[in-house]
Each structure stands twice: as C-alpha cells, then as structure tokens.
Amino acid sequence: MNEIHFYDKNRKVVMSLYDFSLNNGNEPTIKFSVDISYLFYKAFHIIEDYKIYFESFLKELNLLYENKRMIAQFIPIERQLEIYFKQVEFGHIDVCIKLNNFYIDYTMYQSALIINYNIDQSFLPELIGEISTVLKFANT
Questions:
Q1: Which residue in 19, 97, 107, 138 has the fewest CB atoms around it within 10 Å?
Q2: How far apart are CA 87 and CA 133, in angstroms?
Q3: Which residues span the domain enclosing 87?
Q4: What confidence category does residue 93 fall into, taking pLDDT thresholds of 50, 70 and 90?
Q5: At 37, which CATH number?
C-alpha cells in the first residue's frame, strides 16, 4: 500500500505513515508504521488500531477542506497517535501531532512527543488523496 505524508508549511515531511496491513476480522484493523522527523526530534512507532478511525478522519478532513467543519481529528481508541487539524483563519490550519508511548508494569508510565505547526488549506487535497488511496487498497 501507499504512504501518507504530513507536511509543514515549507513542504518538509513532518510525519509519514507507511507499511499498512489490514486485518479483516469482525472489526477490521490497520497496522502501520509511523515515522516523525521535525527539527531535531525523531520518533518511530508501529501502531495497530481500527480502520474506522481512518475513515472518520478522512470524512472530517473533507469537511474541513470544504469549510463545513473547524476541526478534523484522528484519535484512535489506543491513543498511540493523535492528530488534530484546527482551522484558524483565512485557510490557515494549526496541526498538532501527538505520539504516545504507554508502559504498564505495577504502575503506568507514559511519554509523549508533541509537535505543533501550521499549514494552509492547499495541503489538504493531497493528504485526503493519500488517505483515500490507503483505504481503497484496504478495501480490496
């Protein structure tokens, strides 16, 4: 399957989602790799969560692009990766990416990498297209 790229306003890749694989159980899940590189921060993680979260995010991004919604968010149940797009003004969008890591022993430990940046609305059609392509291949 293809990759999904998240760019900053200078068209540098901030995050890539790739190596998608689908598990067609009762509740279809998608397993994928996350690679984040922003300024001097780098992170990698493998995530598996329900396909429905990608579908909802795609719908919200389309509505955001059409100015019918102010926020689009990807918040799967495990919350290993959270993505927020918030329309600010005049086609400018604030983006927040949060990569979480949880470790549970006798107590729960959590670490998070949070990246905030902004883009303009012109970046959305390509992102919407890449997510649509990944979901199309997941449906075949």
A1: 107
A2: 24
A3: 4-139
A4: very high
A5: 2.30.31
**pTM of the predicted protein model:** 0.90
User: Domains in the chain: how many in total?
Assistant: 1
Contact 42/15 with Cβ under 8 angstroms? no
* Contact of 34 with 20, CB cutoff 8 Å: no
pLDDT at site 11: 94
Give the tokens for residue 116. 């905030």
* Cα gap 33→17, rounded to integer Å: 6
- Mean per-residue pLDDT, 47-62: 95
| Distance spanning both ends of the chain, measured CA to CA | 11
Q: Which residues have C-beta within 8 Å of that of residue 133, sequence separation ≥ 6?
A: 1, 2
Beta bridge pairs of residue 49: 30
Q: Which two tokens stand for residue 16?
A: 């890539």
